[in-house]
Structures are given as structure tokens and as C-alpha cells.
Amino acid sequence: MGNGHTIQLWEHRDRAHRLVDQAPAGSMLVIEPPRRTLDQNAKLWAMLTDVSMAMPEGRRHTPEDWKSIFMNACGWEVQFVEGLDGRPFPRGFRSSRMTKAQMIDLIEFIQAYGDQHGVRWSDGEAQAA
Questions:
Q1: Nearest C-alpha neighbor of 103 from the set 63, 64, 76, 69
Q2: CA-only gyration radius of the chain, Å
Q3: What does the alpha-carbon distance between residue 38 and residue 46 come to, in Å, rounded to a whole number?
Q4: pLDDT tens-digit readout, 12-45
Q5: Which of 13, 34, 119, 128 has a beta carbon 3.0–4.6 Å from 114's, enabling a disulfide?
């Protein structure tokens, strides 16, 4: 869609109305929920690092591996392929495609898991962004 427009409604609601009014017949309007925020992403990686350092139940995983484990546990499809070093690595998912609400659910899931397994959160007490 070469002539498409992406508008964040909270910033440009009037412009969105004008574009809809001026759109040619047959045009499509797609409204999507907002994507996860940079603050949520920072929170996610801080929590994943905390879980990785805590090694709950003796599990040694990198923050990246924990991300895949938690996303899979929350119902996101995560495929693993064998890397050059023989270790599996995830492909086919990106948390950047998650909505704010989905990211909140993931963060809350990680927090509950970490709280249950005695993870000490680096920011004091973990809070969903």
C-alpha cells in the first residue's frame, strides 16, 4: 500500500477524520490496538534478566531463552531450530508485535512466576508497565 497512512489517533485524530472523509471509494480502514511501549519492553528485559540470574528450580537459561519460554507458556507460537552451537534458538516471534495489553499479560505472568520462585526484582517490586 504505497499511499497508505499510519496515524496514532491520540495525536492526530482530526487528521484521521480528514483522511477518512477524503478516501476514495473502496478504501480500507484498519484500526489496531496500540503496540507495546518502550517502557514495557525495558521492563520485560529487566525481569527476564532477574529470572535468568535467579535460576529458579536450577534452570539455567539466558534472558532470551526465558523470553521464549514465557511467550510459549502464554500461548504464543514459538518455534525452535538448532543453532550453530547445537543449542536451540527461537524463531518466528517478536514481542514488538505484541499489543500493550498482551505485553501487560506477559509481564504479569513473569512476575507471578518469579514471585512464586523467589526471584528478587532489580527494581524493587516488579510492576506491570
A1: 76
A2: 19
A3: 12
A4: 778 878 888 888 898 888 888 888 999 999 999 9
A5: 119
